[in-house]
Amino acid sequence: MPLIDTHCHLAAEQFDADREEVAARSLAAGVGIVAAATDLPSSRLNLELAAGHRGIASAVGVHPTETAGLDDAAWKEVSRLAASPLVSAIGETGLDYYWKNVSPAVQAKWFDRHIELALSVGKPLLVHARDSVLDVMERLKPALASGLAAVWHCFSASRRDLRPAFDFAVAEGVWMAVGGMATFADRKSLRAAIPLIPDRLLLLETDAPYLPPHPKLTDRNEPVRLIRVAEAVAELRGQELSRLAEITVGNAKRLFPALAGWAGAAAAVPDRREAWKEAFTD
Ligand SMILES: [Zn+2]
Questions:
Q1: Separation of 47 CA from ligand 1 center, angstroms?
Q2: Does pLDDT of 281 surpass 90?
């Protein structure tokens, strides 16, 4: 039963020592990956990962908290990469008012640039919203009307904003990617919303190496742990796990056509099988 982790930071430094093993563990377990970017180096690395593995799709972009030093030269390079057939999505991008290290105006400027880029290359946008739900919706709305496909990564919001966020996503056709928070018993309003997400807009993600699901086995989350997220979401929705997998994989394959031919564990073992074997045996 394949699953697709629609948001994983495989390029993060937490995976520098064993990135190939982490990818291999995930793909061998039948968990395909969309590799989200946070800056130009991770965008480049994502492309390499997608080139080397069936079952991995790549995104390019700059995380809102990383936009302080972003300039036109770096953006030009991100835009050039975005046009590559190896790139499946733009992001992650959005607005983050939690960390307060970059002004909302600077974040908004670069969020708009990502939106324009996604529209121009015709690829979905991976959206990050933290304490910024209303502003994110306002900036996305006109682009959605112009045909932008957007994924609300780590779908969640404060108790006050969750209803408007959910209603907006359903009305505007924004995909909601549910992650490890679904496994946290204290996220009551989110857990109450999960069964209401229409099948057609539901995706799963880990946000690894961040946000390990409950029970927390390790500090570093891994894409293979998507299985735990899927179990929790299936239970909350009263859906068979296999049905949930079918729905979410179908949605992910439509959004990220690079994964359309990927059939799960068996087909995920690529021509680099020998290299992986070596990595496992020292
Ligand atoms: Zn992320």
A1: 16
A2: no
How far apart, in whole angstroms, are the C-alpha atoms of residue 182 and residue 119?
30
Distance (angstroms) between ligand 1 centre and the Cα of 93 equals 9
**Distance from residue 157's CA to the centre of ligand 1 (Å):** 15
- Confidence bin at 271 (pLDDT 50/70/90): very low
pTM of model > 0.70: yes
CB 213 within 8 A of CB 31: no
**Taking the CA of residue 275 as centre, how many other CA atoms within 13 Å lie in the half-sphere pointing to its CB?**
12
At 158-197, the pLDDT tens digits run 889 999 999 999 999 999 999 999 999 999 999 999 999 9
Residue 92 CA, ligand 1 centroid: distance in Å:
6
Question: How far does residue 139's CA lie from ligand 1's centre (Å)?
Answer: 19
User: Ligand 1 being an ion, which residues bring their Cβ within 5 A of it?
Assistant: 36, 92, 207
Pairing mode, strands 202-204 and 31-35: unpaired
* Token couple for 277: 């074997």
* Amino acid (one-letter) located at 6: T
Q: How far is it, in rounded angstroms, from Cα 38 to Cα 282?
A: 32
At 45, list the tokens.
């690395």
**Measured distance CA(135)–CA(281) in Å, rounded:** 50
For 33-80, what is each residue's pLDDT tens digit?
A: 999 999 999 999 999 999 999 999 999 999 999 999 999 999 999 999
Q: State the distance from the centre of ligand 1 to the C-alpha of 91, rounded, in angstroms.
A: 9
Ligand 1 center to 127 CA (angstroms): 9
Is there a contact between 205 and 190 (Cβ–Cβ < 8 Å)? Answer: no
Q: Give the dihedral of Cα atoms 80, 123, 116, 60; nearest 10 deg.
A: -50
Catalogue all structural domains in the chain, each as residue range(s) with its CATH number: 3-280 (3.20.20.140)
Cα 28 to ligand 1 centre (Å):
23
